[in-house]
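So, can you check these tokens?
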Amino acid sequence: MFGGLGGSEIIVIGILFLVIFGPNKLPQMARDVGKFVSNARRSIDEFKDELSAEAALEDEKPARNRPSKGRKPSRNGSAQRDGDAPETAEDRDREAASRRDDGLNDL
């Protein structure tokens, strides 16, 4: 019935709660648990709504404003994949010059 508990187990648990907490406190405890569950559900729903709204805003942004995955800007301003070699001789020369310049600036 409830997570693997049968009817007789639930009755035994109910009787234990009645004996331990008494008939006066049991209704108030049930109300408090109900309020807690209601507040928790409301908070979860608000959080889900905020995430959906944020995701919708991200989808509306132009693709050029978002960084592409796996790419990093090179010194000449073009995006280059991690580990990719420069594609043209001009790019290779520019990359080699920037490495030399970096080495000289470290002195």
The helical segments are 7-60, 89-105. The beta strands are 71-73, 79-81.
